[in-house]
Amino acid sequence: MDSRLRANDKKLFTLAAKRNQMSTAKKEYKRITVKSLYEMKQNGEKISMLTAYDYSMAKIIDSAKVDVILVGDSASNVMAGHETTLPITLDQMIYHASSVIRAVNRALVVVDIPFGSYQSDPKEALRSAIRIMKESGAHAIKIEGGIEIKESAKRILNAGIPVMGHLGLTPQSIYKFGTYTVRAKEEQEAEKLMEDAKLLEKIGCFAIVLEKIPAKLAEKVAKSVRIPIIGIGAGGGVDGQVLVVHDLLGMTHEFNPRFLRRYMNLYEEMGSAISRYVNDVKSLDFPSEDEQY
């Protein structure tokens, strides 16, 4: 009898452990949607987000199960070599977004509306957003700013287009700031950022990127709104993280902000591989007999 009781106890313990494991396991998403991001925040699961600008990179990122792919106007820097994000055009953003969309099966794809394509009036903002959604197949758009872009964001949202906000260091305003230093360190600017975050939530934005602000402020914002807060240089108390994929992979060796963690040094590894190829060509080592028809 005792042995049977012990066996039953063991079975019950094993069953309880399995149930507990199932209840704490992450939900597997076949396709990430705006609703998925809300669920992740509610369940305490952090959201992963990376940039992509072309088919090949987007394919790799999506295969790695990154939740959100941002076709950022940072393409102006990393793909075209400009010093700021300002020069990239709406047509160029649509081109990059179209390439990314063709590669993606799982991630939510968000596209930046570039500088000069939404600032003049809400009608222009809506036209730009519609072009991005219609011509690229994107799932959502992102715009920078708070109360100053309220009407533009509302116009886009009323058309049924999901909008992600962006507060803190907003690169399209670099000449207003004059520098890429941390924002919202002073009380007045911090209060405005909090107000803007609540405003963006109120009008219907599904998430907000907070860039380069104090970690304590970012965490406070994340706890004050129901929508996901995704940080870049905003500490670990937010609901997710975003990085430029070229920075993460070590392809931009001259860019070394405090918030960046490099997972590879592709700049050196790729350079070494290409140098070996050049040497093999010059020395007649490539192609070999096995590499010819």
UniProtKB/TrEMBL annotation:
Gene Ontology, cellular component aspect: cytoplasm
UniProt-listed Enzyme Commission number(s): 2.1.2.11
Compartments where located: Cytoplasm
Active-site feature positions: E211
Catalyses which reaction(s): (6R)-5,10-methylene-5,6,7,8-tetrahydrofolate + 3-methyl-2-oxobutanoate + H2O = 2-dehydropantoate + (6S)-5,6,7,8-tetrahydrofolate
Enzyme kind, highest EC tier: transferase
GO biological process: methylation; pantothenate biosynthetic process
Cofactor(s) named in the record: Mg(2+)
Sites where the protein binds 3-methyl-2-oxobutanoate: D73, S74, D112, K142
Superkingdom of the source species: Bacteria
Pfam families: Pantoate_transf
Keywords: Cytoplasm, Magnesium, Metal-binding, Methyltransferase, Pantothenate biosynthesis, Transferase
Binding positions (Mg(2+)): D73, D112, E144
One MF annotation (Gene Ontology) recorded for this entry: methyltransferase activity
Classification via InterPro entries: Pantoate_hydroxy_MeTrfase, Pyrv/PenolPyrv_kinase-like_dom, Pyrv_kinase-like_dom_sf
Pathway: Cofactor biosynthesis; (R)-pantothenate biosynthesis; (R)-pantoate from 3-methyl-2-oxobutanoate: step 1/2
Keyword check for Nucleotidyltransferase: no
Record has Cytoplasm as a keyword: yes
Cofactor binding: number and manner: Binds 1 Mg(2+) ion per subunit.
Subunit: Homodecamer; pentamer of dimers.
Functional note: Catalyzes the reversible reaction in which hydroxymethyl group from 5,10-methylenetetrahydrofolate is transferred onto alpha-ketoisovalerate to form ketopantoate.
Annotated family: Belongs to the PanB family.
NCBIfam families: panB, PRK00311.1
Protein name: 3-methyl-2-oxobutanoate hydroxymethyltransferase
Organism the protein comes from: Flagellimonas lutaonensis
Gene designation per UniProt: panB
